[in-house]
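Table S5 (text form). Sequence records supplied for joint modeling of the two-component complex.
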Amino acid sequence: MRATAQAPAGRETHRPAAPGHGLGPVAGAGVPRWVVVAALGVAALTLLPVVVVTARAVTTDPGAAADILLRPRLAELLGNTLTLVVLSGTACLGLGIAAGWLVERTTLPLRGLWRLLLVAPLAVPAFVNAYAWVSLRPGTDGLVAAVGVTTLSYFPFVYLPVAAALRGLDPALEDSARALGLGPVAVFGRVVLPQLRPAALGGLLLVSLHLLAEFGALELVRFPTFTVAILQQYDTSFAGATAELLALVLLVVTAGILLTEHLARGRARYARLGPGSRRRAGVVPLGRWTVPALAGLGALVVAALGVPLGSLARWLGAAPDAFSETASDAGALVPATLTTLGLAAAAAAVTLVAAFPVAWLVTRRQDRLAAAVERATYLASSLPGVVVALALVTLTVRAVPVLYQSTTLLVVAYTVLFLPRAVVSLRAALAQAPPELVDAARALGVGYGGALRRVLVPLALPGALAGTALVVVATATELTATLLLAPTGTRTLATGFWAASDSLDYAAAAPYAVVMVLLSVPLTWLLLRRPTEEAG
Amino acid sequence: MDLAEPAWKGRWGAGAAGADFQAIVGAVLATQGEERTTAWLAGLKDNARIYANNIATMKAVNAGEVPAGVIYHYYWYRDRAKTGEGSANTRLHFFRGSDPGAFVSVSGAGVLAASEHAADAQRFVAFVTGPTGQRVLAESDTMEYPVGGGVAAAPALTPLDELEPPSIDPAELNGPTVVRLMTDAGVL
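The corresponding structure-token record, covering 724 residues in total, follows.
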């Protein structure tokens, strides 16, 4: 039983190991030197964008930098970005916790169906969701639209870990509180809610990082944040000083959010000693509130899932003329899908290879070095795709022009961005392969290579497959880094969708979106399965 | 220039952050000078609804979100040549009268000094600007005006010689200053 829930898409920061996890590995045991070196190399690679952005900013003429940074437009962008993070984050938190509580701790009917429907919005990329709303109601724009669309897209990041945590809570604590005279509301506020803190904060962090990185959805609802402004700058003047300084500010904001989350998490203990009470936590009878609760969740699901799917169906179906008239566009769908799958496969392969030494190191060694490597990989991947891409453009144009506009560079960007997804999956698998097995293999006369091939790799395979799925889906729906780094003429599903929807050609955009949603379904399935296993 | 007046507040849209719009600001700068351009950009910031690009602007006008929009002509003609659903409720207005808004933006071609295939590149540019290349442009669905090789434009277009553009030498357009002024105005 884990005390903290797994945050869904892998972008979470390092968290203290729950009891049961810390038992297996013996510090320092079973990590050959080359693994340490490889892990350090991977960490250095992922930190490269941070170094480049910082170095460029430091070497910019201070006067020019001040001109760029100290102007009203920057305050406007900063205000927009922070307002969005606060409002959307709060809304996601409220919706996620409320939905989690309703589904897990009340007599709500159709519990299994709601569990599925409340995670399913993750299969719809936020920019597809925005497209759906904008095409449904032209003129949907500004702060309210931005908060609405991003909340509908991202609330499952809070719902998922909170629901898992609610399933795992020890009901005995609540019983004690009630026995000591607290009413149901007080029990929720003083016993349940505090225990949800790690899960809710982890989810909130994910939401915030996604909000900072979001481009497509916000451009469609005409709400400029830092990421949107950086891409507009890039559109007009490529990696100029303005774009790079904006990227630096975005980097600082991201670091600030990571730090805030780290501090907010605090050092409180949430784990319990011993197995605790294994019975399912008590459920609250909803009674006459059943219908309003069903209506509320129903409205949420319609807005988050029904609108995008309905909109896609409408544009696919209602405009058969447009579909056949733009036969060339429909014909472009197949190559775009193949390109996307090829890039995703390459990204997944490279990411897994890079994640292996990191996962090995952090499962087998629990010292400062391992923690530093893990945090380095998380920091870089927390950065918005646009910052990583911009740094890689700057670096290659100046240092290795051969790599600029190459598929290799794009795959490197995906690796930096999505490494933690693979590390998290591999780590979970490796934790189940105790070092004693490797030691035993070695004692039986097999070298490290042999032990790796015959013991560790087979045991890590399920985790590797899960990691592959996560990276493939993330790559297939990645927009910003792909827009900046894809070689001229390379069209992916996301950029194909974007080219059409940016000019509001909804009918031409729909087929790309449908394929992306279909590709994302396995992710949703994985996320649904995982917490269930943990709870069981 | 009137679009910067208070009377136009909230009544027009443009893809002001896009690369296309910079040429229009370049025309304002070339005809009006830096001071008036700065004032005009401040008016734009106050008055205009900023859209992602020309097409988004046109469709916003079409949907009635905003009464008018500043776009390049060919987006409108392209839409009309297809289904017209993005422009059915709109009408094209040319500024004319040597107004900066009547500026005729040109697409140029260049060959990099560092090019490894400079001779081939020169031949390609010569082909594109010659009669054959210009005919390809005129007969495609771009709805842009061919200006080289004496080739006639698509018949649907308002004739180029009726547009009364301001007299501007494209070589004098000052891109860096335009970007600086737009950045200072908070448009970029």
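Note: Chain A touches chain B through 25 residues (CB under 8 Å).
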